[in-house]
Structures are given as structure tokens and as C-alpha cells.
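Could you join me in thinking about how sequence relates to backbone shape in a protein? To get us started, please write out a protein record for me. Would you write everything just below, so we can both look at the same thing?
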Amino acid sequence: MEWREEGVLLATRKHGETSLIIDVFTEAHGRHAGMVRGGVSRRIAPLLQPGAQLDLTWRARLETHLGVFRVEPIKSRAGAVMGDALTLAGLNAICALLVFALPEREAHPRLYRRTIAMLDLLGTSPVWPVAYLKWELALLEDLGFGLDLSTCAVTGSREDLAYVSPKSGRAVSAEAAGEWADRLLPLPPELLGAGTGAPGNVADGLRTTGYFLTHRLAASHGNRPLPEARARLVDRLAGWGG
């Protein structure tokens, strides 16, 4: 068995004395693991950093085997993020969530394209945290846990949407929320494709997406805790723009 495709490196772990097992995300083959022989060498190891774009050739005797990757670098994203702790935290959160959330060898082409666009924003746009918030929303959507933020769940109105129901994942208007508002999750305009990207709004949005990542996505994985990398990013974003 053999295939060749471009993909982004998500994680590495040592295998034996000289090799690495890498997790990559590709458009056609999804999250896919394989061994890189000599991956700890001085020549290859610097190229195998999370977020790197790679030309990948995977070979195995049988499709079910782990297989071996041959890798060639296309683009390194490390240089764009290493000088800024917040941006590095963003890259680490993206890679960790994909390893956590994606089933192995299941294609998610729309999410792949969204992820590449998100990674390319890191270190190039000061408002990337807003894009990251929308990326988490897209992750939930692509894995079957999408939120319905189009109309109010109570009135059907498209106006004055201010909350999200933790039970249904649907939007609720400020008027319809009434005395139940303190039991609902915030719906900042950034989750609706509007807003100015105010840090407080991004924090509110991450509280909402975080709820569904925990209670829907993680629950479907046996209630495993979300990656620490996401919590570290949320903590750093608390001081973003301050």
C-alpha cells in the first residue's frame, strides 16, 4: 500500500532509539500516523515541528499496518510563532485538539482546509484569536456537534441573539432568555460572524465552545479531559489585548 499527499504535522513521539512516530492531518486521509525512520537525527528532527507542512509518502504492506512515512518539508510555521508565547499557544492548541478529536484515517477535507487557513494566520494577523474561536466552532460542526445559531430557539427571531442553550446548542435572544439568562451560555457577535474582536467577546465565545467541546465532543470520547494545550491558550488569551 502506498499514497502520497501533503499534510500538516500534529505531534511526534519517539519510537526506539532513532525513529519517530508522527501524527499528521491530510485532506484525503484524515489524521494518520506512521513511522519516520531516523526521525531523531539532526538532519530531520528540526523539520518535524508541530504545524509544519510536509510532503508525505506513506507505505505499508497492509492498509491496517502503522506504515512508514517519507517526509519532505514544504513550509515551516515554527519561525512565525516561536517568538510569541500567545501565538505558540494557539498553534499547540490547534494541533492538540485535532489529535484529541479526529478519528484515525477518516477524511475531513473541509476541516483540513479550514485548519490550514487558520495555521497560516498565526504570526501574520493580530486578530487571529477571533479566527481561532471560529475554528473551534468549525471543529464542532465537522465532527457532528455543530451549534444552531441562526435563529432564536424560543421565538424563531434572527434579532438580538445573545445566548446559547447548553442543552440544545441553539441560540436564544436576550428578550426570550428572561430570568433564565444566567443559566445560558454567552453568544458574542464574533460567533455570528460580526463584532470587533474585543478580547472579552473572544473569551465569552471560548467559554461557549469550550462547554460543547467538553460536554459533547469529549463526552463522546469517554469523557477524556480536553488537552491541556487548550486550557493554556485560554489562560493566555485572558490577558490578550490588555
In short: The longest strand covers residues 2-15.
